[in-house]
Specification:
Elements lengths: L1 H15 L7 H43 L4 E7 L1 E17 L2 E5 L4 E6 L6 E2 L4 E5 L2 H36 L5 H33 L2 E3 L4 E3 L9 E2 L6 E6 L4 E8 L3 H11 L3 E5 L6 E10 L9 E8 L11 E18 L4 E3 L2 E8 L2 E13 L2 E5 L6 E3 L12 E6 L12
Parallel strand pairs: 1-21
Antiparallel strand pairs: 1-20, 2-11, 2-15, 3-10, 4-6, 4-9, 5-8, 6-7, 8-10, 11-14, 12-13, 12-15, 13-14, 15-19, 16-17, 17-18, 17-20, 18-19
Helix pairs in contact: 3-4
Length: 414
């Protein structure tokens, strides 16, 4: 009976398709696992989104770096050459000769023959002083000389007669001796008169003033009609020799040995005179001499350089910058000075290779005329000379102008 009843119960359940609800613990576990799966899926989605954004940002950066804008710059090519070592100093243009002419005779100025700023030759007429008083004085001296010369001739003639008479015992010895002394006295008088004549001739010559040297005349200091005095010391005209002309400059005593050694080897050293701003060379000359002593108050020594000054560019008492060449370095690598950059104590260049810039550290040496001797760059390499505020390592460079090393100033244009 019980077995039959069990079967009927099973049949009843299957026929109605009704299941009893799961127990509570089963429902809780199912909700927990579902939530965990959802959270895991959400984390995977967030990670994928973030990773995708990072990849896109990195790709954008790489693309941006790949299309970095080019930099327009001027460049120059390093070359192998020679460069001079100079000693720089401030100098003063000094004439070889300066003549300040004063009056050596007193009187009225009758003529002034020169013009202000005129170049005169040696012996050219400058000034005339009234010569008539000196001509009259000379005439008096010449008259006295002529009179005393004739007195001497008469005394000598009498002496000849006395000697003849003495030879014939016609006079005594005392008369002969007296006449001989008279002749000697007259000779002294004639000599004195001759000296007076010579002196008066010199005084007369002072009335005509001529140029003692060739040079340039300064401003006119006197005019015709002015009265000048011999003892006043008034300067009538100043003449300065300007061709050739010299420049006197000073160097530290520590440089003296270097200059002397070079002088013994080369006998003369080139000297350049530059303007106040050191942008224009005025003239080229040569070292003439070194002073014979060092100034103990300044520790410097004076040197004199000689310049032809054919174009008159050097003017007396003008201040100039001098450059004395003491040595020449041959076979060094030269680059424009304006291509060299500094980062603290480190000097570097931007070297352009196949249109790309790279930084090259260098060691600098002697600089002259816009060029610098360097180590660390080979002759033939191209270096940037502008646009340093835009240049970076690996920058693409578009050459706007090729600077000439003969004129490095061209590379200043950005």
């Amino acid at each position: 009976m019980s077995g039959v009843a069990d079967k009927s119960d099973v049949h009843h359940i299957g026929a109605g398709h009704q299941l009893s609800p799961p127990p509570p613990w089963y429902r809780q576990r199912w909700v927990l696992w579902t939530s965990l799966l959802l959270l895991l899926l959400l984390a995977v989605i967030v990670f994928a989104v973030i990773h995708n954004n990072d990849a896109k940002a990195a790709a954008a950066k790489r693309a941006l770096a790949a299309v970095k804008p080019s930099v327009s710059a001027t460049v120059a090519t390093a070359k192998k050459g020679s460069i001079g070592i100079y000693l720089d100093a401030i100098g003063t243009v000094t004439p070889v000769y300066t003549a300040s002419i004063t009056a050596q005779a007193s009187g009225v100025l009758t003529s002034v023959h020169y013009s202000e700023g005129q170049f005169v030759q040696k012996g050219a007429a400058l000034i005339d002083i009234d010569r008539r008083p000196y001509q009259a004085q000379l005439m008096q001296a010449e008259g006295a000389l002529e009179r005393d010369t004739n007195i001497l001739a008469q005394a000598q003639m009498d002496l000849g007669r006395y000697r003849t008479a003495w030879a014939g015992n016609g006079i005594n010895k005392q008369l002969l001796d007296d006449q001989e002394k008279i002749v000697l006295q007259d000779q002294g008088t004639v000599k004195n008169d001759q000296g007076t004549v010579n002196y008066d001739r010199v005084q007369l010559s002072y009335c005509h003033i001529s140029a003692p040297i060739a040079g340039r005349v300064g401003l006119r200091l006197v005019d015709p009609g002015n009265v000048v005095q011999e003892s006043a010391g008034t300067v009538l005209v100043v003449i300065t020799q300007v061709q050739p002309i010299t420049v006197i400059f000073t160097l530290p005593e520590d440089s003296l040995a270097q200059v002397q050694a070079r002088m013994r080897k080369m006998h003369t050293l080139p000297v350049e005179a530059w303007d106040h701003a050191q942008t224009t060379k005025i003239a080229s000359g040569k070292l003439q001499t070194i002073d014979n002593q060092i100034d103990t108050t300044t520790g410097t020594v004076k040197l004199r350089a000689l310049f032809d000054n054919k174009n008159g560019a050097l003017f007396p008492n003008q201040f100039v910058n001098t450059r004395l060449l003491v040595n020449t370095l041959d076979g060094v690598t030269l680059v424009p000075t304006n291509a060299i950059q500094h980062n603290g104590q480190v000097a570097f260049l931007y070297v352009v290779t196949n249109g790309t810039a790279s930084v090259r550290n260098i060691t600098t040496g002697v600089a002259d005329a816009g060029m610098t001797a360097v180590q660390g760059v080979n002759p033939g390499e191209v270096v940037a000379t502008s646009s340093f505020d835009k240049l970076q390592p690996e920058s693409k460079v578009v050459v706007s102008k090729q600077a000439s090393l003969a004129n490095p100033a061209e590379s200043n244009t950005p």
